């Protein structure tokens, strides 16, 4: 009959157990730290990528703002000259030519600003703002987005005033002359007296009232845009400095 002998199991002392525990603890801790470092590096990369993309969008915005400002300043100048005709003899041939010229070149002209918001939408819709942790970057971006809403609100008045002015000219001017070579040829007036659809002084006064409204709405839009331009430029400078771009 065989006798099975139990193997001798070496007993570990407290020091050995403590060392094993310490090694396991250190391994888990280092793994946790390494994962945090990896996530931090990844988040930092994403943060800078967002910053670069946003700066490029903001540069597009400032270029477009400058363009829209110049175009609306020209529009405002022409509309103001158009309004000066309200105190002149509308039946005069030269005055009527100016009337038609200003009406077709300024009334109804649109030049509106639309932000390049590709990165802004990503930051808002995909939670990207949580990556923007440096300084006051997230707050500055959110503030710029709010400021743009004022420009868009001013654009509503601008559009409404412009549409009303266009409709008012339809009650006074005969646009068919531009298709009649006896009145208009080679992009210029021939000198033949230009007709109005009406000689009703009240309708003509209402037209000038609409022009005045368009002037006010255009000036309001210009002021809103001029106020936001330096905000966009300051945000570009802040992002470039913060992220060393």
Description:
There is one protein chain. The protein is mainly α and 245 residues long. It has one domain (14-242). It is 69% helix and 2% strand. The chain is built from five helices and two strands. It has a two-stranded antiparallel ribbon with strand order 1-2. The radius of gyration is 35 Å and the shape is rod-shaped. The termini are far apart. The model has no long low-confidence stretch (mean pLDDT 86).
Q: List the uncertain runs.
A: none
Instruction: Give the beta-strand count.
Output: 2
Radius of gyration: 35 Å
Question: Could you give the order of strands across the largest sheet?
Answer: 1-2
Q: State mean pLDDT (0 to 100 scale).
A: 86
Biggest sheet: strands, sense, closure? 2 strands, antiparallel
- Helical region count? 5
Helix content: 55-70%
The share of residues in extended strands comes to: under 5%
The class by helix and strand makeup works out as mainly alpha
Globally, the shape reads rod-shaped
Distance between the termini: 86 Å
What is the ordering of alpha helices and beta strands? HHHHEEH
Number of domains: 1
